[in-house]
Design goal:
9 helices
């Protein structure tokens, strides 16, 4: 039987600092060998399709993508022509545009709109002494089935995360969403991370398992394997063989058929070799 592998990204392929714990060329070689044995490989993550696509190119595995926690899938290299697993979520891009326009009317807000994930990692270290803005909002422009932004407050010449600012900006977004669709607004899951200053708004039924029916239609003769680190990587189906990296949560490990002894990318390589050779 042919095999299809879903690879989680954060805390699976990359660690908490967004780094690999093995040399990049070592990972690329292992994935290339697995592909030569007939393994179809793609990344499944909470990130946008653009972010995932960049990682797939970096790792040398351009293929299918499961983005935004299962809410958006793409089979081909053209990530603009994907599939929404929850139709209501098509509203999010319009909400994002109205959100940005509203932010731009406030002279006290520094607005950055684009691919902001990489910038957010260094943003708190940037001096803002010469900036007249009192707060900064970084809006991700690439999500199609959800909405995310970072919010910061100016403190002693630097940008700092702030729970009050983050919550207030989130309320502004939700009001815009409510004006666009009360149904969607009443069925959202809001993920606020005060430490990193990020807010992600999903449909409350979003989950990676939503991708399964579409993947099974695209790849009908494939046995599906999934490698991850937490219960968000559990696809709620006995048809999927679940695998855990060594650093995975214990609850997730207990549900997995295969568990690696190594952490992060080193564990991924261990599992990929086992899947491609032994199963």
């Amino acid at each position: 039987m042919k095999k299809l592998l879903l690879l989680d990204l954060d805390r699976t392929l990359i660690n908490n600092e967004y780094h690999l714990n093995v040399p990049l060329e070592h990972l690329k070689k292992s994935l290339k060998e697995a592909k030569s044995r007939g393994l179809t490989i793609g990344i499944s993550s909470d990130s946008s399709a653009e972010t995932i696509s960049a990682y797939e190119k970096l790792f040398g595995i351009p293929g299918f993508i499961v983005a935004e926690k299962g809410a958006y899938l793409t089979r081909e290299s053209d990530i603009r022509n994907g599939v929404l697993t929850i139709k209501q979520t098509f509203i999010f891009p319009a909400v994002r545009e109205k959100f940005v326009k509203k932010l731009l009317t406030d002279p006290q807000v520094l607005v950055i709109y684009g691919d902001v994930n990489e910038m957010s990692r260094s943003f708190p270290n940037l001096s803002c002494n010469n900036c007249s803005s009192r707060k900064a909002v970084l809006v991700n422009n690439s999500r199609r089935a959800s909405l995310s932004f970072y919010a910061y407050k100016k403190v002693l010449g630097f940008w700092r995360t702030d729970r009050v600012i983050l919550s207030a900006v989130c309320k502004e977004v939700m009001q815009i969403l409510r004006n666009e669709s009360k149904t969607l607004a009443n069925n959202t899951l809001i993920d606020l991370n005060e430490k990193s200053g990020i807010c992600i708004i999903h449909h409350n039924q979003t989950g990676k398992s939503l991708a399964l029916p579409i993947l099974q239609r695209w790849y009908p003769s494939h046995q599906i394997f999934a490698i991850g680190d937490s219960l968000t990587d559990y696809y709620k189906s006995n048809s999927v063989i679940h695998c855990a990296v060594g650093n995975a949560d214990e609850q997730f490990k207990q549900r997995c058929q295969i568990v690696a002894s190594r952490n992060y990318a080193a564990g991924v390589i261990e599992l990929v070799r086992k899947i491609s050779r032994d199963h």
